[in-house]
Records
---
Amino acid sequence: MKRNTIQRSLTLDAVQKLKCHPTAEEVYDFVASEHPTISRGTVYRNLNQLAANGEIRKMEIPSGADHFDHLCHDHYHVRCLKCSRVFDVDMDYIPDLEKSIKNTHGFELSGYDLTFKGICPDCSMSDQTRANTGANSRK
Amino acid sequence: MKRNTIQRSLTLDAVQKLKCHPTAEEVYDFVASEHPTISRGTVYRNLNQLAANGEIRKMEIPSGADHFDHLCHDHYHVRCLKCSRVFDVDMDYIPDLEKSIKNTHGFELSGYDLTFKGICPDCSMSDQTRANTGANSRK
DNA sequence: TCCTTAATAATATATATTACTATTAAGAAC
DNA sequence: GTTCTTAATAGTAATATATATTATTAAGGA
């Protein structure tokens, strides 16, 4: 039977407290700060089980670590191509986008991942700063 | 200046011959079969440079290796959650989806990754087979 | 043919994640 | 509360994917 361990509770609590789409590593760091003996593998396993149970959401980001989120409305994300951080996107969710597929060729569809790409304000500002000060002229 | 090495030509040729969205590893295997001394790092570097130049396309798939594609029309992909293979999707491309974002909050957007998820016919057929023969009843 | 240096091969390292295994502890049975 | 079963854990190793490092090679201009 499924057991209710403190490690699982701490993992769930951490995801709910860390509002900003934490990665497994960030969740681990947070949990480890109050329960230093927890192991990374336990956090990974619990995150995946919680996501499978629908208690949290797992967001799979191309070219980067998975991010986790407390449950909330469906929404999209944008990742910064420089700093790899992930942010919410202010856009209506497209329900049943997979219904637009003309011919599934026997595929059983079960959803999709959509992630926008770009440069975040912080990174584009620091580019600007470097350009203005000429600091980017170094080899 | 940019140099035209055989390794780069072989890498480009391989992507154009391997029609089915090869991963870097698959490209490496293909190239290595005719040029066994090529190194993995060289294939990775050339694939990324060719993609940066727009000579091939790099597809970043959540939770899996990047795939590469010879240039063709914009289209979406679906990955099988069991065997991780990637297939083309028969659906109209949505141009400028990022224009639907209401407020970019200063983000400089430059595109998006959209990948559908599901179970491919091969994998769902083998499930079916196991179910019919009762082979899935083992613990 | 020579020369400069971009590109390479080989190896090491980084990152993200899962697998393995002896030990611990959750919760059912008593 | 005590015992018992075994799910879950801690710690470690292993895996997958990809980039970094460095001495050596070779592309292509002079």
---
Amino acid sequence: MKTVEKLPTETAREYALRAIKENIISLDLAPGTGISENEIASFLGVSRTPVRESIQELSKASIIEIYPQKGSYVSLIDSQYVEEAVFLRTVLDTAVIEEACDLATEADIQKIEDNVALQEFYLQNYATDKIYVLDNEFHRLIYVAARKETIHAMRSTILIHFDRLRSLSMMTVKDTKIVNDHRLMLDAIKNKDKETAKQLVEKHLNRYRIDEEAIRASHPEYFKVSENM
Amino acid sequence: MKTVEKLPTETAREYALRAIKENIISLDLAPGTGISENEIASFLGVSRTPVRESIQELSKASIIEIYPQKGSYVSLIDSQYVEEAVFLRTVLDTAVIEEACDLATEADIQKIEDNVALQEFYLQNYATDKIYVLDNEFHRLIYVAARKETIHAMRSTILIHFDRLRSLSMMTVKDTKIVNDHRLMLDAIKNKDKETAKQLVEKHLNRYRIDEEAIRASHPEYFKVSENM
DNA sequence: GGTACGGTACTGGTATACAAGTGGCTATGG
DNA sequence: CCATAGCCACTTGTATACCAGTACCGTACC
């Protein structure tokens, strides 16, 4: 497990949740790893309570499996859940951007504009490591503009199943293309052009198609064995 | 707060979550009510720990608002969240039933068939109080058939915002119509007829249109005052 | 050598103790 | 009578103690 800095503003619970999430997505807590509430608590320098609450939450989304009195494990990558994550993102993102076309205010658009401008700036200056955070923030801002922030929170939890597979794939979509997609989406929202916006989202998501079988071949121990074989 | 029987199979945490949820949906814990972890814990006969974990979970979906060191409150009915719930249900249910048309196995269909048959039986015998539970189960089985069970779990949490408004409306859609809708949906899945299935879901959801303003007029104290007025 | 049994050191589930902060009530002084 | 200061009873947040159940390992006995 990798160290995560505790921000002064967050509670122990928020810190623990963030630290565990980041470690799972980055695969520093690899699929199948056994985790102990006590161990993580002492590693993070907090008590079991906040750690336990975080683990409970992740287990709700099947990111962690809890076997009472036996142990807890980071879930193996399960095609079932990855598909659910991809499905949810596809269905929601397209529906939400259409809503954003209808509902976005000037202020919403300005925030997105600032975000995209920053993406373009970092792209020009080859500081592409910053783009990952801005990317997530961009998509959140779309949900905010569509007045669907609660839905976004749920989306991001289940998306962990997909995110860690993406980490594992080490597949990198050219940042140029990502940022360009974002610029075009913003334009579509400005123009209230739902049809174009929807098509852009579909095209954007298609860039992240992952060859799961190839990864399974090189890291079979990370994957759940399907029952139907 | 109304008593909820503890099932012998569930943990204290599951019991607490279920009890609190049911009380919020039934409005026995009315919107705006102040709740205390200690109070609920002693009422349910468990300690603060499982109660606290449940409240934390509900606060994630904005069902409960926590003000540290001050108190926690059942959220007032907020049009914003109700709309998010309706939006989520509409978007997901239509997309999921299409998936169910593709993916449902014989076993899945048989379970739905049994459920619908039971609905029809209770309808014939005027035991319509049983239909509410079967209704929820019916929609869950559709998600199961579409291999989207995790998504269903998230759906049901956010739907609380809508469910309690429905309780408040005391609006009753004729059970005859509901059960008939379900029968037709099942047929569409059997026939793998996505288009019909989708239209049926839309029609079905339209039956639950609620006149929020009328309810707001008769119970203004349950509603959040909009900031844009 | 093999097997069965028991101790031990873990697990997560629950209960309780303590900490830090808030708000209201009361008592006291003007 | 009013205002203010301080105590007290509450809140949630966190840490810790205790419980029941599990797994594993070593030992003793066959």
---
Amino acid sequence: MTTQVLADTLRSRGISPTQQRLAVYSYLLAHRTHPTADTVYQALCRDYPTMSRTTVYNTMRALFRAGLLRIVTIDAEEQHFDADTADHGHFRCTQCGELFDFDLPADTMRQCAPSGFQTDLFDVYATGLCPHCQATH
Amino acid sequence: MTTQVLADTLRSRGISPTQQRLAVYSYLLAHRTHPTADTVYQALCRDYPTMSRTTVYNTMRALFRAGLLRIVTIDAEEQHFDADTADHGHFRCTQCGELFDFDLPADTMRQCAPSGFQTDLFDVYATGLCPHCQATH
DNA sequence: AATAAAATTGTAATCATTACAAAACACCAT
DNA sequence: ATGGTGTTTTGTAATGATTACAATTTTATT
């Protein structure tokens, strides 16, 4: 995805596409590993020496408000960010700590969402052992 | 539920039923409002003047490990505790901040859980506007 | 009662996140 | 270009939930 397209995406959501915001957003799009704010910060420090943690957080909030990312709170300690806003669940392995995506059956959201409530966000979290950690057990 | 029954429940899970633990657990059973650690602490302070926040946290961890409660992380700021371990979803209203329970369609968990993973915990979170806050909008 | 083990408590530390104000930057009209 | 205005970024300091820890108290056991 070109920078131009990214910039247009941000603009279309009312976010002016600054260098820092583009850097954060494109990092998220390129790394589907559910990074934390600090992980993103550490990675971008190298290329953008003036990048600050606060900017990472500010950008995350802006992207979140614009519906461009999902904040994963399956880990109580720290938030993880995910630029994939399509329907999917998150699995956390209690052994290795890794976060995995998993598919949700079609229409899960519609079936599960409580009636009478206006549901804006929908998250499915599972916790346990990933295949690898089951094996080394 | 009598104190005796509660004590037996704890004992059967390998948790010795101290005064403090019984107080915390019975508070959770009586108040299905998904309280935070501080809410529980503030409430129990009156009757148990020596109760400490650390004890509340310790007890929550013990109950959680024993499978007697669920830790709700839908609110990134602080954890909420729920003694109802039966299958149900949690809804958070972004306006009033309240947490609501909602029913999940039967077998949701089985249908949604990713294959190949050993799923120990399963949480469904929805966020948006509760019926009341939709009305006052 | 004496001893050992476990639980509780208060305080201090940790650490992710946010508040804030100063500096840097972008945009626009003149 | 220039100056002015509003936005963005940045570093530091504050916040606040949670945990670490060591001393004290309680509980269980002999």
---
Amino acid sequence: MSYTISEAAQKTGLPPSTIRFYDKEGLLPNIKRKNGIRVFEDMDLRLMGLLTCLKNTGMPIKRIRDYVELTSKGDDTLQERYEIIKAQRQFVLDQIEQLQYYLEELDFKDWYYNKALAAGSESAINLDDYEKETGKKAPDDPNRRD
Amino acid sequence: MSYTISEAAQKTGLPPSTIRFYDKEGLLPNIKRKNGIRVFEDMDLRLMGLLTCLKNTGMPIKRIRDYVELTSKGDDTLQERYEIIKAQRQFVLDQIEQLQYYLEELDFKDWYYNKALAAGSESAINLDDYEKETGKKAPDDPNRRD
DNA sequence: TTATTTATTAAAGTTAACTTTAAGTCAAGG
DNA sequence: CCTTGACTTAAAGTTAACTTTAATAAATAA
């Protein structure tokens, strides 16, 4: 199945301008052309899915291009490509861990505002209650007056 | 306890230039000054911790400033601040979910390159093996030739 | 055939979040 | 007192990842 750029945009969720930008940056090698107009195949759409994965997990475009270029060089580059994927996988694991840490900070704030709203004032809050009520340790509260 | 900007930088992990930038952007209200020089208190450092949490979970600086400004307006703004925190908390949950989805794509790639390296070539890979070996569904592979 | 829509390019513009620079001020050690 | 290092500001510069513009060409509908 073949697609125009606007169909590819539809299918991938990327605007046509971004697809052209990625093409120009070398992220989409071997896109076919018919009278100068890009013709996308399913393989291209699947590649864009991988690009989106790498991009949305924080890989810079330069590095994505490196990966794509290695891919087109064939089996000689398997090890190098594997290292890139492994590193990115670990990077995602680290990000999840960090987000889970930040989530705890926000959980505390959620508790804090629930308490404050129930009492009508922040000044009524006893931070020790957080550990008593949730079993979790309260993170440092910016509003605490030392 | 009081700190200079470089001590605050040390403690928060933010460079002094960034702390000054945040101050200028209104993210650090009421920083004390002594002869024009900033004097940071523990409360300020804890606020910076919250800023880092909000920033690193994707909140734009403008919105962080809104939140900080509401905070300094007192109990009248509790509900509004709570909405911001609730939304950010949900945003973090969504991010974690998305990262877990992308992780599956990278898990597949990890499997793929292990197989390819063992066989010495990508062409030897049978994608059906992924589901057989891991019980997980293989995501679309960009290298598949339809 | 003509009009409209969709495609193309190169180049310039945008945005967020800093960072660097330059010129000057303050504080501490010798 | 003088030098050295840390602090100050405003303003300009940087970077990544796009987006917009303008001018043009190809495809599609009437």
